[in-house]
Write a structure and sequence with these properties.
By secondary structure, the chain is mostly helical. The protein folds into four domains: 141 residues, HUPs (Rossmann fold), CATH 3.40.50.620; 90 residues, Orthogonal Bundle (Glutamyl-tRNA Synthetase, domain 2), CATH 1.10.1160; 49 residues; 95 residues, Orthogonal Bundle (Arc Repressor Mutant, subunit A). 43% of the residues lie in helices and 9% in strands. The protein contains 20 helices and 13 strands. α18 packs across α20.
Length: 533
């Protein structure tokens, strides 16, 4: 077995130039099926995945469901679907068996009693028979003695009913009679627990600040602390990469590894994902309040029926979501922002993960999606737009939708944003029934505009096939002839033909609509304008 010096040399330094990885990397993501997977959990899975792939290692998933009271129906399937959507391929999981399975802790529960008993045999743990009333009395005594945070520890355990304070005969009798008990870790007195975190450096905690945690419950199930350590050991996990919220438990876990005499993995505790204002950990309530998702997929609570929206259903690309998450707490160096999964794997280094919390920026998330939308092939976007249009009862061809995408995608963050261009797929004036556009047109109308547009129509009428450059030339010739500026005519041209003040260039729009449709719309607008003069 490797000695402490070897572990200190590796801990926290893997991935750096001075201390390269020399072991076969195995990491795991270990969620609990207690509800939907938060984006913070997805990021933890992502960093584990990137680290494993960077070093040619394995990425496992283990469902930690020892707390059956908190189990939520559908949560496990949600975890599976979320990771699949994000493109995080698992080497072993409850859905892809490997040599160290099963990968649900509830299916491994017979293992844990053996290991809890092993610690008792090594005098590293003990039976505790205390009732809830006795535990409460202990806490009250401690408070009366001025202890701010009462705990079951090396001091108070001497006055409780456990196998350290009772005689061996009494303990044996209680066990034979089936008296309820838990198994607690025997935390040593007056010692320092030291370990090096791959992100945070050296962590030192005195055992006076660690209580004798329950390892095995009276219902025959292990606690998280025991099951987690046993499974990581049996599954040969080399690096435990998890959220900052587990950092306070890490010294306890180090003690459990030492109690078993097992080589412990390298720990790396990731920074929190913070609210957009940076004030505290990002929660579902923040998303509800500010209007953005915190879950990868839609989730419907099986009890309350409450629905929470997800990034997938909001129209985000999984690549954009993953790219955004990767940069929430990690910097690949330089100004690199847009990265494929392969590029993230290549760049990833635990040494570049931040210690401090990472502020979530909804606007930046939209920016990522916009970049990935622009990188999509026009034909793919055209097919998606055609599908959305048909859902609204507008029938068109893939070719026409693709041609429209070329004009619309630069202003779009999502495919649905391109539905603002429905006027490109319909016939007749877009002013019909459009009170907002009509009001804008009436406000901007000047009698001189009508003559200018008539002159422009005369030029278009001689062109059987509109080309963007020729439309622009005709428009400029009209301005020169009329002695007008573009701002005096273009807004009305846009409103009459497109029914909106903003959008793609009108010369390109005209070429896509065709001469006859443009002429029809201009004629209708000019007829309406007779009532405005």
């Amino acid at each position: 077995m490797a000695g402490p010096g070897y572990l200190r040399g590796l801990a926290g330094l893997l991935g750096s130039a001075v201390h390269p990885v020399t072991m076969s990397v195995r990491v795991r993501f270990a969620p609990s099926p207690t509800g939907p997977l938060h984006m913070g959990g997805v990021r933890t899975a992502l960093y584990n995945y990137l680290f494993a792939r960077k070093h040619g290692g394995e990425f496992l998933l283990r469902i930690e469901d020892t707390d059956q009271g908190r189990f939520v129906a559908g949560a496990e399937e949600y975890i599976k679907e979320s990771l699949e959507w994000c493109g995080l391929e698992l080497d072993a999981s409850p859905w892809k068996e490997g040599p160290d399975g099963p990968y649900r802790q509830s299916e491994r529960k017979e293992l844990y009693r053996h290991y809890a008993e092993e610690l008792i045999a090594k005098d590293k743990a003990y039976y505790a028979f205390d009732t809830s009333e006795e535990l409460e009395a202990m806490r009250e005594r401690s408070k009366a003695a001025g202890v701010a945070a009462p705990a079951y520890n090396s001091v108070t355990r001497e006055h409780m009913r456990n196998s350290l304070s009772l005689s061996a005969d009494d303990v044996q009798k209680k066990l034979e009679q089936g008296e309820p008990y838990v198994i607690r870790l025997k935390v040593p007195r007056h010692e320092e627990v030291r370990f090096e975190d791959a992100i945070r450096g050296w962590v030192v905690v005195h055992t006076s600040n660690i209580d004798d945690k329950v390892l095995f419950k009276s219902d025959g199930m292990p606690t998280y602390h025991l099951a987690n350590i046993v499974d990581d050991h049996l599954m040969k996990i080399t690096h435990v990469i998890r959220g900052e919220e587990w950092l306070p438990s890490a010294p306890l876990h180090v003690l459990i590894y030492e109690a078993f005499g097992w080589e412990r993995p390298v720990f790396a505790h990731l920074p929190l994902i913070l609210k957009p204002d940076g004030n505290g950990k990002l929660s579902k309530r923040d998303g509800d309040r500010l209007g953005f998702p915190v879950f990868p997929l839609d989730w419907v609570d099986p009890v309350s029926g409450e629905k929470s929206s997800g990034y997938r259903e909001r129209g985000y690309y999984p690549e954009a979501f993953v790219n955004m998450l990767a940069l929430l707490g990690w910097n690949p160096g330089g100004d690199v922002e847009i990265m494929s999964m392969a590029e993230m794997v290549n760049y990833f280094d635990l040494g570049r993960v931040h210690k401090g919390g990472a502020r979530f920026d909804p606007a930046k998330t939209d920016w990522f999606n916009q970049q990935y939308l622009r990188m999509r092939p026009d034909a793919e976007l055209g097919a998606a737009l055609k599908e959305r249009l048909e859902e609204q009862g507008i029938v068109t061809s893939v070719e026409r939708a693709t041609a429209a995408v070329v004009l619309l995608k630069e202003r779009a963050t999502f495919v649905d944003d391109m539905l603002e261009g429905t006027y490109l797929f319909t016939t007749g004036s877009p002013l019909k029934g459009n009170e907002e556009a009509l009001a804008e047109a009436r406000k901007r109308w000047k009698p001189a505009t009508g003559g200018a547009l008539r002159s422009f129509m005369d030029r278009l009428g001689s062109k059987p096939l509109l080309v963007s450059a020729e439309v622009e030339k005709a428009f400029n010739e009209m301005l020169h002839e009329q002695g007008m500026k573009i701002g005096q005519v273009m807004p009305m041209f846009r409103l009459f033909v497109a029914g909106r003040m903003q959008g793609p260039g009108m010369f390109d729009v005209s070429a896509l609509l065709g001469r006859d449709e443009v002429m029809t719309r201009l004629e209708h607008g000019l007829e309406l304008s007779k009532t405005w003069d």
